[in-house]
Amino acid sequence: MSEPPIVADRSVRLAWAADTDAIGAVQARAWTASYGSLLPPALLADVDAPSFAAAWREAVTRPPSARHRVLVALEAGRVVGFAATAPSEDPDAQPADGEIVAFHVDPAAFGEGHGSRLLAAVADTLRADGFTRARIWLVVGDDALRGFLEPAGWAPDSAHRTLDLTGDGSATLRQVRLHTSLSDESPDSGAAS
Question: For residue 88, with 0-12 CB atoms within 10 Å meaning exposed, 13-18 middle and 19 or more buried, which class applies?
Answer without folding.
Answer: buried
